[in-house]
Each structure stands twice: as structure tokens, then as C-alpha cells.
């Protein structure tokens, strides 16, 4: 089911590239050269805002807005989960070719429209990518940051019991919400001091007004 996903483990001993789902194929060689040198590997200079052709996130890794990240993303179908994530992960991806499970009507039903209240009904009708953080125990905080080349909408769902029934829109997830920031740089922190148990999270990177493009998802735990 999975093709290949580019995953940089910033906590690993070699701090190198670790593919998931088998060896990389196609244009993998060109894409793995996107290291942070102060200048993007595209045609512009890294600005850190996601408005140019490349941007550098807080981890120092460079997001290449011109690269074809679809080769690292599994195709839609089967489960909606693109990949599990854990502390220290940096994932380069695109919402192109993802699933289309979540839309504005879902968040309205979950009574969590937030800033979507004034948006049209089709604002989230594009493709999304869903990542799963499994096993947040009450002894550390998690900050998830998403830098993107196009406007995207990031949201989350928390499951009070350890469930891997991803994207079950009819199943009760005890808390839902949206990331904070601009449409090109968003983050959310899950605090340990609000917990009484162990939780799983869905991290949803959705199209905003039909936009599709590259993004970088970073998971920091402390």
C-alpha cells in the first residue's frame, strides 16, 4: 500500500534520511539534497515564511517548493493514514493525491469550526494528509509545526483510548481542534499537564480553498 515516505529523524544517531516502506525510487536522489544552507535549493532564497520557492523551518531543514514530494507519499485508498510520526520526526510531503475525508461539514458537526465559520462550504474540499502520533504519555509536551508552500489548513483529533481506527468520522474522538498561525506556518502544542491518560492524535494537513502543494511537518517533544 505504501510507496516511499521521506522521513528525517532529527534525534537519530546519524541524523540521516530514513525511508519508510522500502527503497526510494524515481527522483529520490534529487530530493534528498534539500539541506539547510541558508539558500533554498529552488530558485529563491530561503525566507522562513513559505512565500518563496523554498523555506527553512525551525529545525534548519529546507522545504523545497519546487520538488516533487508525491514520490514519498503513499496513494489514497485503504486507510487514510499517510504515516505514523514520533518525537523528532521531520516529514516532507504534499497534500496532492491524498484522501478527502475531512471537510467543513465535519468540523461543523464536531462543533469546532473556529475560523472556518465565515468560510464557504467547499473551503476544505481538497485533499488532505493524515499523520498519527501514537502514545502521548503524561510526561512530556509535543509541538507539531507545519510549514507549507501554499495555504493549507491543519487540524487535529485526540483519541482518549489507544485506537488505530484512523479517520473514523462517525467515531467519537474526545477533543478536536485546529492549529494556530498563518496558512503557511502553523503549530500546536499538546501539553502533558492537561492529561490523565495516554492519547493518540490525528494530525490533519488539509487543502485550503483548493490549494495543493509541499509542506514540512516537524514533531518536537520536550
Strand order of the largest sheet: 1-5-13-7-11-10
- Shape, per Cα inertia axes: globular
| Gap from first CA to last CA | 33 Å
Strands, total number: 13
What share of the residues lie within helices?
A: under 10%
Residue ranges: pLDDT <50 for 5 or more in a row? Answer: 1-59
Main sheet: strands, sense, barrel: 6 strands, antiparallel
Rg, rounded, reads: 17 Å
User: Count of helices?
Assistant: 2
**Strand fraction:** 25-35%
* Series of secondary-structure elements, N-terminal to C-terminal: EHEEEEHEEEEEEEE
Q: Indicate the mean pLDDT.
A: 74
Structural class: mainly beta
Features:
5-stranded mixed sheet; disordered N terminus; mainly beta; 6-stranded antiparallel sheet; 222 residues; single chain
